[in-house]
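Exercise 7.
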Amino acid sequence: MTGRAQFNCLDLKIGGLLFGSVILYAIIVFAISPITLGQFLPLVWTYGKTLPIAFLAILLITQVAGIITLGVKTKCKASPFAFCYQNLKQKWQQDRFLSLIWPIATLIILIPSFNVFKQTILSKQGFTTDPLLADLDFFLFQGDPGLILHSFIGSLETTLFIDNLYHAWFLPMILGVFLVSIKASPTTRIRYMSCYVFSWVFIGSILAWLFPSAGPCFYIDLVNPNHEGYSKLMSQLYAYHQEKPVNALIYQQYLAESFGKEKLTIGGGISAMPSVHVALATLFALGSFSINKWLGYVMSFYALFIWLGSVYLGWHYFVDGFVSVILIGLFWKWLLVFEKIPPKKSSLIIETI
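Solution. The predicted structure, written as C-alpha cells, is:
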C-alpha cells in the first residue's frame, strides 16, 4: 500500500527550531551546572514517565467531551473507540503524528532542564533584586499588596480555595500543550509553543538570572532577617495553617529546606521575578481566545486569579506578574506574523505493507 502524508512546512520548521533551542538550552544548563549525567537523566525520566500518563488522562477527558458534544449535535450516540480512532487516523494522515510529538517532546526536555537551572545555577546568584521589588510594591500600594488583599477577602475558606486552585496550575500547563498538539491549527500551535518556550527560557531563566529574587515568603530568611514588611502577611497565612494545612506554606518550607543542596528535587529552586506562573497563565488565556472567546474570558479571569493569588500567598511581588503579563502579551502579538504567512504543504509518499 502507498500512503500520502501532508506536512505543513512552517509547522515542522518552527517546531524543529523550538525543539532544537530547548535541546541547546538543556546542553548549556547541563554544562554549567555541577550535576552529573547520572543525576540529570533520572530527573528527565521522572518527568518523562509522569507526563505521558497525564497526557493519556487529558486525552480521555477531551475525547469524552468531544463525544458528548457530537451526541448533542447529531442526537445520536457516538462510539468512544470510533471517535478516538477517527481523530487519531486524521492526525496520522496529516503528518504521521509529528505535530503531536514535537510539542510533547519539547515539554519533556524543557521542564527538567529548567528544574536543574533553577535549583543549581540560579541559586548561586543571590537575591539582590528583592529590595527594589519590595520598594516598588510598597510605593504602588502604600503597603504590602498581599496584606491588603487579606484585609478585603482574607479568611480560612478563601485561603484554602486560592491555595488549591493556584497549585492546580500544573494541569493547564500540560493541557495547553496537549490541545495545541492534537487540535490547534499549525499557526496557533507555533505561537503557543513559541510563547511556552519563551516563558521558561527567557522569562524564567535569563531574566530571572539578571534580576534574581526570592519573593515575599522568603524575604526574612534569605534576603534581610531584619525586614518586617512581610511578617504580618506570613503570620496571617500561618494562622490559617494552624487550622487547616495550606499547601503553599508546606511547599515553601520544602523549597527552603532543599535550597542550596546538591541533591536534585522535583520542582526545586527559588525565584520570583518574573513570574513563570503568571506568564503561562496569561498564555493559557491568549491561546484560549484562539479556540473560543468565552473560554478566553474564563482563562483571562484565571490568569488574573493566579496573579493575585501569587501575591495573596506570598509567592510573588505584584510587579513580578505585571512584567510577565506585558512580556507574554507583546511576544504573542509579535508572533502574529505567522498568521500572515501562507501555509505550504509538502507531500511524502510512504510505502506500507
